[in-house]
Design brief:
It contains 8 helices and 10 strands. The protein is α/β, with parallel strands linked by helices and about 220 residues long. The protein has a single domain, classed as Rossmann fold (3-Layer(aba) Sandwich), CATH 3.40.50.2020. The strands form 3 sheets. A 6-stranded mixed β-sheet has the order 7-6-5-8-9-10, sandwiched between helices. Helix 1 crosses helix 6.
Length: about 220
């Protein structure tokens, strides 16, 4: 869910402007899973734009304060959630930790880096939510330590139904600064895409695999 539509519109406009979000129906992108997609989102690019980076940090802080209340630790999801999480933790004056995608195969074999004590309330920071699977693995890892996960805050979500189902099953609240619908509206308004493109983008969101199969 977006916590604020004005923020959603501004974040979408910024991501499109700096090409953190790229749209292409005729030459779709290939995700790591092999799935073909008309959209590719890399929010790490925002770090190169101080004004946009600052705005996103401020809005994540606002979302956490308004939606989750008192928090003990901010936790980033490796790798793209780490810098965003550090910025947020610094703004809030809170401790920071991060969760690896897998435990290290050397040293202390940590999956969680940083100090989190059992019973502490944490909010997880992500840059992007697609299916939610990798993001929620971080939530499960944190719960195993005894941490109380208040929820997750992310910059952008594709708004896939599978993600909504996964977060519901995990009993984890997700708050995003922007989402797919807000992005499409802004892309049409700014003439990044045509009405024909819009139809294809919405078809992909409804059934990514079927869309991908047609564009192999």
């Amino acid at each position: 869910m977006n916590f604020d539509q004005e923020t959603a519109d501004m974040v979408s406009a910024n991501l499109l402007q700096i090409k953190a979000i790229k749209l292409n129906n005729s030459l779709p992108f290939t995700w790591a899973s092999g799935l073909k997609s008309p959209i590719y989102c890399d929010n790490r690019i925002t770090l190169s734009y101080p004004k946009i980076r600052t705005y996103i940090r401020q809005q994540l802080v606002k979302a956490i304060t308004e939606q989750f209340g008192n928090v003990d630790v901010i936790v980033g999801v490796a790798t793209a959630g780490i810098p965003q999480g550090v910025l947020v933790a610094q703004e809030l004056g809170l401790p920071f930790a991060y969760v690896r995608s897998a435990a290290k195969d050397h040293g202390m074999s940590n999956k969680i880096e940083g100090t989190i004590n059992s019973g502490q309330t944490v909010v997880v920071i992500e840059d992007l939510v697609s299916t939610g699977k990798s993001s929620l693995e971080a939530v499960y890892a944190l719960r195993e330590t005894g941490a109380k996960v208040a929820g997750m805050a992310a910059i952008f979500s594709y708004g896939l139904q599978i993600a909504a189902e996964n977060f519901k099953a995990a009993d984890c609240r997700l708050v995003t600064l922007s989402d797919y619908d807000s992005m499409i509206s802004k892309a049409i308004e700014e003439e990044y895409i045509s009405k024909k493109d819009e139809a294809s983008l919405r078809e992909w969101r409804e059934d990514p695999k079927a869309w991908s199969d047609r564009h192999q």
